[in-house]
Structures are given as C-alpha cells and as structure tokens.
Amino acid sequence: MEKFNGAQSYASRNGLFAVSSIFMFFSWVTLALRLWVRKVIIGGLAWDDAFLVAGAFSFTGFCITLIIPETPYGGAVRVHELTFPEISRLTLIIISGFTLYVTTMIFLKTSLGIFYLRIVIRDWQRYLVYFVLAFNALWNICLFFLAIFQCGANVSKYLENTIKDICLPVPVTYRIQLAAAYLNAAADWTFAILPIFVLVKATMPMRTKLSAGFVLTLGCCGSIISLARIPYIKGLRPGPDFFQTAVELGSWSIAELGLIIIAASAATLRPLLRIIRRQVRLASLRRKGGSNNTSVASVGPETAIISPLPVHVTNGSGAVEALPAMERVDTEDHGAVSHRQGPGV
C-alpha cells in the first residue's frame, strides 16, 4: 500500500479534530438551549426534540468513529506500516461511522419534518412533508444496509471480499450515495420553502415576515454541505487513498450534520433572545433613570414566536394568558394581541 503524503495527512488529522470539536461543542450547546427554551419558557418538549436529541447522540458517535482512525494507532499517516488485520479493523470502523452518519441523518430529517408539520396549514403541504419524510427515510435505510452488506453478509470479511472483487461495483454504490446526497438536499429545501406559503398569507409586518422566514429557513443550511460532499463520495473506493478520502469526506459530513443540529436548535431560540433583549433594554432604562413601573411588554415593538406549543404572554390589561398551539402574537407598545392562524384548505 502506498505511503501518504505526511504533511497532507497531518493537516487532515488536525482538521478533523478541529471540525469535530467545534461542531460537537456548538451542537450540544445550542441543543441544550433549545431544550431549556422548550421546557422552561414554552412549557413542554415534543417529539421533534426527542428525535433531535437522538440525532445529537448519534452524531457524537459518528465523530468518535472518525477520530479513532486518526489516533497514533489509526494510521492515516502510516497506513503502509499496518498489518492486514489492523487495516481490516480500521475499514470496519469507517463503515460503522458511515452507518452512524446515515442514522443521524434519519433522526435529524424526522425532527425537521415534525417541526414543519406544525407550521404548514394546507393539506397538500402536510402530504408533501409526509412524502418527503417517508421517501428520504426509506432511501437512507437502504443506504444503511448497503454500507454494511455491500461486500456480503459476513461484515468481518469486508476487506478480504473487496480484494477478491466480489463486492457491489463501485459505480453502483457511487450512484446510490449520490442520489442520497441530492435527496437530503432536496428534503432540506422542501422543508424550508413550504413555510413561505404560510408567511405570505400571514397578517404581520414585512419586517416580521422576513425575520420569521429567516428563522424557518435555517434548517436548509445542511443542504449546502450535502452538495459539497459529492466530489469526495466518488473518491471513496478501495485503494491506497481510502482512509485519506474517508477523513476528508468525514470532515464535510461532520460539518453537514453539525450545521443541521445547530440550525434546528437556533430556530427555536427566539423566545430566549426576546427575554435577553428585553432585560437589556430594561437595564438600559434603569441606568438612565427610567421609571421603575416600566413593564417588559412596553419595551419597544416586537413580534413574538410562531410556536407549536402553548405560549404565555401578557395582554393589554396586564393579565397573563396562555395561547394555544400555532398562534401568532404581535406585541405592540401597549401589550400583546393574538391572532390565530386560519385552518388549512
């Protein structure tokens, strides 16, 4: 087996460590904030939160499986010095990482789908979300089993069967993975575009529509990385550069999954940002000698959240009322006025 370029291998290893650390850290931080907002501010967790948490754990396992081959034992630097059993073991680790990638993608897409199902209001929009969810999940499940059994039922002989050339042809597996990348990107954009129909018909200021639209389209951020992975998929084939290509593809995959988790979590943090902004304004007013009777609801015009769960707000008379699911709240200088979205057609 050929020797890798040392400088390139060290750079790839350091890059993988950096990418893994950064995205795992921000993924768990933003996810923790999301869960706190849902539980404490909004009042309860939902199934999309559960699937996102499952995806975060699977994502962490995926990062770990990619880091293992980059340890001093792993040999992205000295693969030519490894024995056949060691190379075989590393190959199985890479395959395990790929299955965790697919599993994470299924969890994350399901979480996004459940979230957007609470936002869309027309029947055809709901059916489209169901179709995208089902088709994407089925394709990724097929990809999961393809990764494990593409060289036969005995996974422990994966490398041996690869050498004997009894695996599925590389062009076939490449086309299947390529289709999966396009499907993941298409699912992200479908989920992001559908809420636009809701916002267009909503009776709210244009500034609010733009703000809400930006939040709701955060979920499609991962599609950009999904398309960027495509050139590396073609290079992931048996040969001297297999582990090097796996490291490069893994870095992009980590960025893709991490970005989805971060974006999906950040899209639910608007209530927390509103509280922080109000507290900052109140503190500023107090420093300027403002009245102690200044209420939080009177600090500037705002627009509250589009939430799939009940939200507690203060009305114009100062009383606290709980708004049911999927109500929009427009807060003015003198309180909050709620408007329920109309039923789907």
Automatic annotation (TrEMBL):
Chief place where the protein resides: membrane
Transmembrane segment boundaries: 15-37, 49-68, 88-108, 128-149, 179-200, 212-232, 252-273
> According to its record, how does it sit in the membrane?
Multi-pass membrane protein
Query: Domain named Rhodopsin: which ranges?
Result: 33-274
Q: Where in the cell is it found?
A: Membrane
**Keywords associated with the record:** Membrane, Transmembrane, Transmembrane helix
Cellular component (GO) terms are: membrane
Name the domain of life this protein comes from.
Answer: Eukaryota
Q: Which InterPro entries match?
A: Rhodopsin_dom_fungi (IPR049326), SAT4-like (IPR052337)
Q: Which family does it belong to?
A: Belongs to the SAT4 family.
Q: What is this protein called?
A: Rhodopsin domain-containing protein
Q: Which organism does this sequence originate in?
A: Cercospora kikuchii
